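User: Show me a protein chain along with its predicted structure.
Assistant: Here is one chain, sequence first, then structure tokens.
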Amino acid sequence: MKLLFLTWDSGQTSYLPSLFFPILARLRDVGVEAHVLQYTWADAEQIARTREAAQGFGLRYTARRIPAKVRKAATPAAIPAGAVDTVAYCRRHGIDTVMPRAIIPSAMALAAARMMPGLRIVWDADGLPADERVDFVGWSPGSVRTRALRAVEREMLLQADRIMVRTRRAAEILHARAGAGWDASRVHVIPNAKDEDLFAPDAAARQRLRSQLGVGAGDLVAVSVGQQTEQYLPDSQARLVAAMIARSESTRAVFLTAQSEVITDALARAGAPAESVVVRRVPADEVPHWLSAADVGIALRDASFSQRAVCPIKIGEYLLCGLPVISTRGIGDMDEVLDRGVGFTIEDTGDVSLDAAAQWAIESRGAAIRTRARKVGLEEFSLRACVARYGRLLN
């Protein structure tokens, strides 16, 4: 089988090299040759970095650049043009299956399938895009834009040969939207995954970095990786860390993020001592080392409706590195995963809930929970498990 992964984005995020390229490259193990076609308004330097990463994985990558200034105005015309381009690419390279990620590529794929009978569509639904815009961008549920995204979603539900979602809750939501008589067997639940050989406990890194932090073997180190935008509740994260430090002065917290000012201000408001916290941005290849040095991972998130369909990448990374996790209840399928003795979920971000989470973190350290976390991580979020699920989806 030859697969074309079709995407449309700003190029500001690293999800292609960090998440999809490792998966697509490993699909060779199940008889799938993957290509990537990205429509993007990234600059030339960003595109070059993505192309270099693709070459490192042995993947054929093509970028179609859309000028950022005209991107919104050009979107309606880009859909039919993208469909023609997709058909030409598929015919030129013998592609038999296209996998669009999210809404705009889905509209392209639908049009391409009408022009190229026999082209299979495997839809990467990747969350609930219309609902996310209602939850976090301020779109009205009844706006023209929201209805347009929902129309593409419904058409994909009816037309796609296979559908990939990240969570069982997303599958249930889409089933309800498709209505009676819809063939739910076409839906496959495939959580996000990371390379279990890269994200793994590392005793040497643990000793080295904990020495840099000035903490002993019995001291608590908490870590939070990723964005600190409003959706990820930076004030609540800061209050949680302050509660941990109040219970044990030797506690250290590490925030690996590009939004250093946001979390630094939140920590100051929460009264967390500056000397007990490290806030920095590190290269991606250093993240597993810092996770190995920690004892608990923080993954708080606004539990809005759209978040039922997401699978937070950081939780998979934490578990693979042997870290138990403190999370918000109601995010994807994480409640069921963390309830397997590897996490603590909070119902709300009130002081009582955060204090309980802080106490749990202090009391739940040790080799046994780290071993259990690694085991759950391998079962749910390893690259090996993910590729096997993709194989069942595609074949």
